[in-house]
């Protein structure tokens, strides 16, 4: 990650907050990404921005909360308004200074709660769409995640293979661009 941060600074001149960059890396769902950092990462990696994100709309949640009208009223939020505001406040505060232990614990608790709700919503949607019990979908997802994690760790431990996979992915993207 430090290498990517240096590349962003070198390629774009943007001084990247390590926390903002870290929020974009990994297997966790990103709820409110820093688009400037994501754009700089895409530039440094020589990939289009849509290679950085896999955007998915949660239609049942939007329908349950009202259609999107540009006011944010259609955005699904598993937290009540007060706790959602508190989450936003803590994230803003974290970007301004280090949080104390209590604030850090509260932020982590709220983030965990949102993450669990998002995952459960996704499981329910997949189960409904496939006509399967939610528990079966949950097991399938956990198995797929374990396979993905093992593959990622294997790549991380083999820099030559990682470089080859990155090269191959870039080549596939170039081919798609030419075809499209």
Structure in words:
- By secondary structure, the protein is mainly α.
- The chain folds into three domains: 1-55, no CATH class; 57-131; 134-180.
- It has eight helices and no strands.
- The chain has helices spanning 2-12, 18-24, 35-45, 59-65, 81-96, 101-130, 134-156, 159-179.
- Helix 5 crosses helix 6 (101-130) and helix 6 (101-130) crosses helix 7 (134-156).
- The longest helix has 30 residues, at 101-130.
- The two termini are 32 Å apart.
- Residues 58-74 have low confidence and may be disordered.
Judged by helices, strands and strand pairing, the structural class is mainly alpha
Order of helices and strands: HHHHHHHH
Distance between the termini: 32 Å
Total domains: 3
Which helices and strands occur, and which strands form pairs?
Elements: H1 2-12, H2 18-24, H3 35-45, H4 59-65, H5 81-96, H6 101-130, H7 134-156, H8 159-179
Helix pairs in contact: 1-3, 5-6, 6-7
Which structural traits does this protein have?
mainly alpha, 180 residues, 8 helices, 3 domains
Summarize the structure in short:
The chain is mostly helical and 180 residues long. 70% of the residues lie in helices and 0% in strands.
